[in-house]
Amino acid sequence: MSADYAATLANVCARATDEVDIHKVTEMRYGSICYLGVGAINKFDDICKAMVAEEKTRVGIITGSSSYRSNGVWAVVEPTLRKYNIQFVLYSGATPNPTDTEADQAVAAFRALNPNWILAIGGGSPIDLGKAVAILLCYPEHNAQDLMTFKFTPNHALTLNTINTTHGTGTEVDRFSVVSVTALHTKPCLAYDFSYPKYSIDDPRICASLSRFQTACVTVDALAHVTEGSTTSCAGPLSIALGQQVGRLISKYLPRVLADGHNLEARYHLLYASALAGMSFDSGMLHYTHAMEHVLSGMKPEIYHGFGLGMIMPAVFHACWPAKGVVLASILGHIIPGLTGAPAEADHMYVELEKWLVSVGIDKKLDGFGFREEDFPEYLRLLRTTVPLPTLLSLAPVEATDEVVHQIYTRSLHFHSIQN
Hints:
Number of strands: 9
CATH class of the largest domain: Mainly Alpha
Oligomer: single chain
CATH superfamily of the largest domain: Dehydroquinate synthase-like - alpha domain
CATH architecture of the largest domain: Up-down Bundle
């Protein structure tokens, strides 16, 4: 195959995905059934019908404070629940970087109803919280801190269904749940096979209410998922192939959404990219970026997860470039044209990626949130002792020595290649 024809074929393959009918609701099946497309919210009727058929007529609902109303989701959910005589209790206390306190509050709010399924409405925070609460309701003798510090090992949970309202975490199609433990200033992660949602909804019209800042943060999260999921020691062809598609979609459609938040075609493709990214790291797992960011936002919960990832991402990729430059180039090359993965490109990649991140709104480094180099030993201690962060570090493509970790945090402390 000639180089010219290979380039032409790659362009045709890209167009084949880009030209799908975004108004046709389709199913993605990967651990769960996810409905994708404009109007997918109307599939909630089918979900309720399926729950009633299983004699599950009491639901605990987890959301954030207000977006579930402003984005139009509640206008569909509430009448549908009443149509099927499904009793419900609403907990609307989920916050960014949800905590064990919130999980315990939700469990307490639901106890009188004794729900037999959970509905999470929102982005990663309500859905991750929903996964934890779905477990805790089956184990009344334990609280959320017990769960998140692995003081017991659950083996089942209530059925969880989700209505996803962002395009970053992929949690609507994966098994992961991240809930901070307030007293310990840690941000552990669960991963149980019974935590896949049964049904999920990805409707780009819902995401149109995201602010420019939220849009950037969640999309950077998706980029981190695939760059890590494609470069761990257990990455395989599936996680890498998904990562390459996600890099292309983000490069093409994030600028369009930032220019026009109501561009439903662009929102559709970013939702699809986010789901693919969730599948990628569900297979390939994660390493430095997420492990090191969990320490940061565990200590300072006001940091948006995606923003925290963006602050340290260039330094992580720089450290990993000697081992995984070709794979990273196949993903980041859509954002930074011309990358081949050659060792000499590491500095160029760092500079250009930092510029791109600032262009989409990730415009601070660690010093902008008060982090200091003299505190790095404490960050390292948390990395080594917070389950499952040591496991993530063990999967990194470059050995996670204290020196490498310190170097990544140091590089991420200030802007080096550009001025803020």
